[in-house]
Amino acid sequence: PTRCDEWSVQDVAAHLVGVNTFWQASVQAGLAGTPTRVLVGFDPAVTPALMVEPMRELGYKDVLEGFVASNDSLLAVFDGLDDEQWLTAAETPVGHVAIRVVAHHALWDCWVHERDIALPLGLTPPVEPDEIRSSLRYVSALCPAFALSTGRTFADVFVVEADNPDESFVLDVDRSVAVRDRDDRNLADEVCLRGGALTLVEALSLRVPLPASAPTRWRELLRGLATASDVEMHVGTWPSGDGQ
Which tens digit of pLDDT belongs to each residue from 151-210? Predict the structure, then answer.
């Protein structure tokens, strides 16, 4: 069992084989000037499970070998990209974004799923500050992006103040989402989410409760990802679920 409802360790690895394969195809198509549109209508509550189902017929060794090979293949595509190529558009579940953002999504996804596997086994994954900072920025932006995709409207500024490792940034949310370093320390407390960086990544990924001090507007914002993932939002607690 893992922290993902109805997914075994092998299922989680199979999921990552599938998304690694997609990221590679997406990046290559973007670099070729023809970004894909295969995720139009993507449903994060349904599509990942549909991708995993046929892979359950494989043996665990086949899935493991495929996982290692897909990691190596994706990293080979990323290796050597120049500054202009990192800014080239490619497809993700929330639309066409720069390839550098695709890489952030891939990192966040595997970071969360590594913990989904390891923690129930009593294992503690290594804590790398750069991975946590990257994942925190990405999932913070993903929440309003999914909220916008479900038809909700926002025109606001949201702030994250994290520690261990320290990280401070601002989300400008309107018809799109932009992330920038915080340059105004006087923004109102009702838009500022504070806490340990690792815990905040877990909470915004629907794995643990938000801190009790989380502003109401952040809780409302997180409903976007919860709605898209078909996860019921509970006050003070989160059910397990893929959260993809």
Answer: 777 778 899 999 999 999 999 998 889 999 987 666 666 689 999 999 999 999 999 988
Question: What CA–CA distances, in Å, run from 152 to 12, 175, 195?
Answer: 30, 10, 26
In sequence order, which residues have a C-beta less than 8 Å from that of residue 231 and are 6 or more positions away? 45, 206, 238, 239, 241, 243
Count the neighbouring beta carbons within 10 Å of the beta carbon of residue 8: 15
Number of helical H runs and strand E runs in the chain: 8, 6
Neighbours of 41 (CB within 10 A): 7
Rounded to 5 degrees, what are φ and ψ at 64?
-60, -45
Residue 236 has pLDDT above 50, yes or no: no
Q: Which residues contact 229 (CB under 8 A, 6 or more apart)?
A: 44, 45, 206, 241, 242, 243, 244
Q: β-pairing, 177-181 with 156-163?
A: unpaired
Contact in structure between 145 and 94 (CB atoms under 8 Å): yes
CB neighbour list of residue 59: distance below 8 Å, 6 or more residues apart: none
65-66-70-73 Cα dihedral, nearest 10 degrees: 60
| Residues 31 and 88: beta-carbon distance below 8 Å | yes
pLDDT at 44: 65
Residue 234 has φ and ψ, to the nearest 5°, of -115, 145
